[in-house]
């Protein structure tokens, strides 16, 4: 069985005033959605700007902290070298003082040895002079003895 066929339904035709109202309403809705979209874009831009500013601030603080850390490390490295140089300088000064004292002792000892060797040298010279005098005396005694012996034999 076939279903009965009804004539097509009639739709109401709108007047031009109603059409204008609908158009205005659609435009208002479109304008409202455009305004909402622009506001949303503005908010997004503002949020992105804030995030970027925060990232920039964090990066700036991190850079400052890194620069400070590098500066501290450089100062520590330089101070370590300076401190080591100062320690070595003090050690050298102490060794110089010790060497100066040792040199003074050696100079006194050398002067004493020089005086002792001079005394020995003088004594040896005197012994040499005494030996020479003894030889001279011995020769004179032999000459006198030979003269007395010649006189006695004659």
Please explain how this structure is put together.
- This protein is mainly α and 154 residues long.
- The chain contains one helix and no strands.
- The chain is rod-shaped and about 210 Å long.
- The model has no long low-confidence stretch (mean pLDDT 85).
- This is Biogenesis of lysosome-related organelles complex 1 subunit.
Helix-strand blueprint:
Elements: H1 16-153
Protein name: Biogenesis of lysosome-related organelles complex 1 subunit
In short:
The chain is mainly α. It contains one helix and no strands. The mean pLDDT is 85.
Features:
single chain; 154 residues; mainly alpha; 1 helix; Biogenesis of lysosome-related organelles complex 1 subunit
The main β sheet shows up as:
none
Shape: rod-shaped
Return residue spans where pLDDT drops below 50 for at least 5 consecutive residues. none
Number of strands: 0
Question: What is the percentage of strand-forming residues?
Answer: under 5%
What pattern of helices and strands is seen along the backbone?
H
Helix content: over 70%
Q: On the 0-100 scale, what is the average pLDDT?
A: 85
What distance lies between the first and last C-alpha atoms, to the nearest angstrom? 213 Å
Number of helices: 1
Gyration radius (Cα, Å) is 65 Å
Structural class: mainly alpha
Organism: Melia azedarach
Protein name: Biogenesis of lysosome-related organelles complex 1 subunit
